[in-house]
Amino acid sequence: MSSYRYGRPALKNSVDVQLQTAFSDGNWNTVIRLAAKRAATLKDPYYEAIKMCAESQLDGTAEKCAVLVAIDDLVKNKKTPDIDTIELYEWACRDFFDYEVEYADSLGPLRARWAKANPGSPLALQCVQACLEKWDLVSAQQIATSLDKAYANTADRRYMFWNITLTYLLSISPQCTDASRKVYSLLAVRHLERAADLTDNSAKLESTDRGLITEEEVGLYYRVLHSHGTKEEYISRLKSPKLGAISQLKEGRKLLFCEALDALEAWGEWDLIYNLCREALELGLEGGTSPFFVCDLQTWRKFASAASKVVDSDSALGEVQAILKRYIDIKDTASAMYKKNLSLALLETTFRLPATALNPNHDNNGLSPRVVQIGLFLDQYFERLSAFDDVKGYVAELGFEEIKTLMEDVLPKMLDEDADKARKVVLNALVCRLRYLLSTCPQTLSPQPAAVEGETQDKPFQCRFCTEPTELPCESCLKKLVVNASDAYRQITSDKELVDSIPRLDKDPRLDLALVMGNSLLKLSGLRPRTSDVGQSLWQSVEPRLFLQAVLLLDTQLNETPGDTELRLLLVQLYLLLGCASYAHRLWTPLDVKRTIQDALSPLFFDRISTLSPGLFQGGRPLMEPLRAFYKHNLSDKSPVRIWDAFSAGSYTSILDMINHDSSLRRSCTLMMTLVEERRAIRCYGGKIDCEIEQHPLTENINDDTTLVSKTDYGPFPNLESLHGPPIHEYLRLGPGLSNERSQLAFLSEQYLDLLLYKPPKDYKPAKQTEAALRDREYTLETLSRLSNSLSDFLHQPSTTSRLTPSETTYYSVFSLLSAALLIALSTPRSDPLPKTLSLLTTSIKSALTTLRSTFPSSPTNTATPTTTTTTTPTPVTTTAYPALTSLPILSSIRDTALAVRHSAAFVAAAHDRELARDRSGRSGVHRDALAEMRALDAAAGKALGEARGCVLRLKEALGEAGWMDRVLEVVFPEEGDVLPEGGEGGDKGDGGGGVGVGVGVVGKAVEEVVGGRAGAEEWAGKVVESWREGVKGWGMVRME
Amino acid sequence: MANFRRFRPDDLNKLSKCNLDPFTETYELGFYLQYYAKWPSLFQVAEDQHGNIIGYIMGKLESSPEIYQFSEHYLPWHAHITAVTVAPEARRLGIGKLLTEQLEVAADANDAWFVDLFVRVSNHKAITFYKNMGYSVFRVVKDYYGEHSTDPTLSSEDAYDMRKPMKRDAKRQHVRDDGEKHEVDPSDVW
């Protein structure tokens, strides 16, 4: 195949050498002259095509488009040119596809007609390939139908299944008309049903038979049936003698079994799941498959879960245990992986058994079968890296008595006194992790009466471990945990034999201990999930000392274990929260997030990065170039990447999955984040944005109805939290994660800015100025109306508020208000009274600006007092600098909102000036009162921008002062007596320790001992301060006008 | 802890536990999808209870192009292991071995003569792993890798082309005992 890949096509061999040479040399004028001569002499339309193809290479628009006219003529008149002409035409108009010319309206139908007329030609295959690569499903399906007919009952089965696959794809594609959709659906199902019946009813199928033979063909059948058939049909076939899930398993095919379990679970068909799992597992025991073929954890979980839901669940669970026991009897023959799966299956079944079966006598005994099973599992696997993740879900399900027994009786006795030291510390690290996990479990607390002996209790619970009044988590227990983990940590570092043993272990136990200490300190600092209600600066919402201690401790650990990606990612997030973007970037870079994994992992660093540190975008290689290149490279074609390979290989389920994946990638929130973050950063420094966001090739199919999807991968975070609370990554983000709502609002607000900031080309001089002005006005009003409606719709969706930070909500609300205000201002005739709505809108905008300004800590309008427990009188600059440094996204919102207001006011004023210049009467200009409203808005925005500029200057000055490193260290390790007792300022977040087991400064001391004291923290403090300085330096160059 | 199943494209969003490990290469999207498109049964994953991919193997089935049929380096119909990786937390459980065995089953099902793979000559751990699984060195590909994994002063490193015969090669025609003595250039390797 030559032309569709757009190498210059070869001319027919019959063409003379002179013309061949001119064509291959690209001497287009010579080609035109020679081809015209040959056409006249030989009366062969092929030479006309060569001539037109050569003309298309010239600069003139008419010559370029002649080939399009020729194609259009062929399509409309239902003519079928020869394949060489099609190849020439396709090459000639290659630059028009996806822009002016739809393949499905031009070359696609020509190829389909040619293939229908020549189905036996090998070139027909190339026609279906060409149509698929241009994602013209209509033409591709027509060609596939022709090929199927031509090659029916031959050994090449692909054509039949291409036909079916493409018929199915068409039935679910927007390329199909609603009228045809049902027909194609039925056609695909009928084709496959016939094939399935043939398979089930034939003793043996030959490759020439039109039944289902390969696993891919069977997989396609079930996928189509699941989509277009009924549940009953699906279930009935699932039990059939040849195409049933068990029959397929016997042939070594597991795909259907896995997909069927998912489908049945979605339908809640527990009886069927139970039977299917039972039969499949028995098959392994009876030699129908290799013994552990389906012995996955998923199978056991679904088996146990289904057994607990069927009518006779006691008997069903008994059956699960019986089959499991048979597997355990042969587990010596299994690999370590399956042995572990069996151990986990045992845990799973024990936890799914009804309480009556586990404890028939209702004893209040902590040593329950569940605890025993956890103990047995850990006895085998506690040294494994994944031991904590394996059991944490089960431990979090235990009742308090069981927990106490596990933690105080079972685990401490797991190793003998004389056991290996290294094994002891590994077990101790696991115990610390479990202890932290339990601090996130509500069953470790009991409700506290609102008043005790007449005294009001301010803590709603009592901790069942330490009996202290508390909230979740219990601060007293967390403090004790920090101290215990610190002791264990020092025990390792002070023992050379232990340190030397670390490389032989699955994981450095110091890492686990550091994570426990770090997480405990973060919780003690008051860090809460960064959801939509986190309005305050981080510095104001947490106890800075404890937060910084956590960061310092984890950073110190990273120096010991630099290869640990979990810890590195955790620190990247913490430094972003702390406003140290450049340092976070230095930690992020070695993770080498590149190519395919960028879509899932990039949000962990890049989301909101332009609002935190625009300066990062200044420098050599554009910061987000690899991400942009990833999307450009993989989404530039309309067809999914490598789709022809899947057709060619007959991988039908791969085709369906690849199409779904492609669709998700085109609707990726990360993609939208990439475009928006770059545009925001470019605007910060007055750069030129290449094209309007709506015109960007990557947003081609995105509109209000598109659901943008976030595939952010939080898998690599070290999550010690239980399912009773939010996962750790929710505590660490700058705000709510990527979402359709936020991405759509960002897309719309960028479109609004594109409208305001559009500048016509300098040489644009319309001949009919009045007409052009009217068209422009009409376009502007239509766009404003659309944007206003869309912004308002997204903002008013019930889920939206929870997907945005407060400053983002304000930012997007202002865009919604501005688009509505401009619509009124520009559409109200001067002679009419100005609708009062405009005044209401501008008042809301001003109020929003004030709200934003008041939330930024160093703003003159903000009088909030920072929370700190240190009594060292801080200098005024640091009092405001710390909170400001951890609230830079709010500063960004102030700037961006104020600039949007100013651009809007300027847009209205410019529209007015243009009208005045065009129509001297002044009657068509903008309403006088509207102009006044916009001027007032402009003044308010100017004031906000002035303040923002002032804030940056003050921050710069503050950070320019000497002694910052000492100041940071003073926050982290205050001098004796600098820590307020509990009940003092911010005392509820301190480790004051009044009345609790761990006293003043003991936690700090524990941290100090791990990090090597104040001296050990100096280098770290220097890096933090330097990163703040770099960030503020970047902000100093941001344009505020 | 683990489920073994076929790869799905959505797994690409769950690769971090494997691919953030510096010893695992991250390829272009088209590379993964090419394998999924052409040889889906040879692209298998192990996933943990949260859906994270903790191991995977990518393989292909092919022979050398017909044009090389009479070359001494011609490869008959065989399976090739392109990549196999296991996340640090899932090591020492035999996942790599299970994935490799699954690929061998697929190779036998597709009537392959042998399964082959390339490995750095300095990667003793992997070489031992494969030898324990029945693979042997068939030839040494000189300067196959553009950089040396352990010695920064060297600009290249040799590869062992290791093979394991499948059922079709009952007479062990496609393996040899003294593979370390047979050196070839990268240009001879198809």
Secondary structure layout:
The complex is a heterodimer of chains A (1041) and B (190).
Chain A lengths: L16 H9 L2 H15 L2 H11 L5 H16 L6 H10 L14 H11 L4 H12 L3 H14 L7 H14 L6 H24 L13 H14 L2 H8 L6 H6 L4 H13 L2 H17 L10 H11 L5 H17 L6 H17 L2 H4 L10 H13 L5 H9 L4 H11 L10 H18 L6 E3 L3 E2 L2 E2 L4 E3 L5 E2 L4 H19 L2 H6 L7 H16 L13 H4 L2 H17 L4 H13 L3 H8 L9 H4 L1 H4 L2 H4 L12 H11 L7 H7 L2 H15 L2 H16 L44 H4 L7 H18 L11 H27 L10 H22 L8 H20 L20 H10 L2 H31 L9 H33 L3 H9 L29 H10 L1 H24 L5
Antiparallel strand pairs in A: 1-4, 2-3, 4-5
Chain B lengths: L2 E4 L9 H4 L9 H10 L4 E5 L5 E10 L15 E9 L8 H15 L4 E7 L3 H9 L3 E10 L11 E9 L17 E2 L6
Parallel strand pairs in B: 4-5, 6-8
Antiparallel strand pairs in B: 1-2, 2-3, 3-4, 5-7, 6-7
Task: Describe this entry's structure for a reader.
The complex is a heterodimer of chains A (1041) and B (190). Chain A is mainly α and 1041 residues long. Among the domains of chain A are: 270-351; 740-759 and 767-965, no CATH class. Chain A is 62% helix and 1% strand. Chain A is built from 48 helices and 5 strands. In chain A, the strands form 2 sheets. In chain A, strands 1-4-5 form a 3-stranded antiparallel beta sheet, covered by helices on one side. In chain A, strand 4 and strand 5 (469-470) form a beta hairpin. In chain A, helix 5 packs antiparallel against helix 6 (107-117), helix 16 packs antiparallel against helix 17 (313-329) and helix 44 packs antiparallel against helix 45 (928-960). Mean pLDDT of chain A is 92; it is low at 863-874 and 980-997. Chain B has 190 residues and is of the alpha+beta class. Chain B has 2 domains: 1-100, Gcn5-related N-acetyltransferase (GNAT) (Aminopeptidase, 3-Layer(aba) Sandwich), CATH 3.40.630; 113-190, 3-Layer(aba) Sandwich (Aminopeptidase). Helices cover 20% and strands 29% of the residues of chain B. Chain B has helices spanning 16-19, 29-38, 95-109, 124-132, and strands at residues 3-6, 43-47, 53-62, 78-86, 114-120, 136-145, 157-165, 183-184.
